[in-house]
Amino acid sequence: MSSASAGIFSDAFRDPSHGLAAGGDYRKEKDATDVAAMTSDSGATWTLVKGLGGFRSVIAHLPGSGASWIAVGPSGTDISLDDGGTWSPVEGDGYHAFSFAPQGGVGWGVGESGRIGKLIW
To answer: What structural domains does the chain harbor?
Structure first.
């Protein structure tokens, strides 16, 4: 049975063909599994992605990186360097929202109690 608190919360594409979608159940942040999917055919088909550490509210491609992605949620952050095939946790707090600057090597996350985080790559 599906829940009103569960679903896809973010999607992003690194080019017209390759994209990722992420989400889960925000009421079960740390218990969430199978919360992402990838496409290599412009979204015609999607394949389940394993290895994310729970609910993720944002998925973003690292600009200029080729096949690197970041997935961010309140309970943590994960990074993939192989187009979403494998994921590694990033040390530190999670965030509710995240965005990369259009140019330059910096991204910003916002979280609980007005917390702001900066990612430099």
So the answer is: 6-120 (2.120.10.30)
